[in-house]
Amino acid sequence: MLNIQIPIEWLSSLSQEQQIAELNSEVRCRLGQSKIHGVGVIAVRDIKWGERCYCRPNMIPRFYNIPFGSLSKLFPEVKELVLQRWASVVNGSIFCSPNDDAHLLMFINHSTDPNYDVVSDTALKDIKKGEELFEDYRAMDNWEKVRPLKDNPWLDGG
Fold first, then answer.
1. How many CB atoms lie within 10 A of CB 108?
2. How far is the C-alpha of 98 from the C-alpha of 148, rounded, in Å?
3. Phi and psi, residue 16, nearest 5°
4. Which residue, among 87, 97, 91, 92, has the nearest Cα to 64 in the 3D structure?
5. In Å, what is the CA distance from 125 to each residue of 51, 79, 98, 110, 138?
6. Domains (ranges, CATH) in the chain?
7. Which ranges of the chain would DSSP assign to H, the alpha helix?
8. How many Cβ atoms sit within 10 Å of the Cβ of residue 74?
9. pLDDT for 87-112, tens place per residue?
């Protein structure tokens, strides 16, 4: 087993079946190519209005100890993310939740018609699998100091 050093409290204390259920329930998005600007956050499954998107990472990441042979119990899109990011799991390594190892929140693009609420980490409307998540940068105080329209024409319409 690959020796990844983490504080013991970061390792999930849930049973293997509970870890699988948690990952299948909570992993809902991934990084991907945005249709409007660079990298974006893409839904890996349908997310209903009001549901949590899990784009805000935990400040203390969660690590899981699920044997490689049991990864088949994960939803295919979740298993793919785990294998892409933690290939050493084939050798028995622990791995971090895909929600925590990439700070998805930092990659959510702007739209004047947002489908994601950054404050509550929830969907503002139904989001289909494969659809990009968007927030409205203008909801933040002083947003224009960071994202002036003249420097970011994609903010104007997208």
1. 23
2. 32
3. -55, -45
4. 97
5. 9, 26, 23, 15, 18
6. 8-151 (2.170.270.10)
7. 16-26, 76-85, 98-101, 143-146, 153-157
8. 21
9. 999 998 999 999 988 889 999 998 88
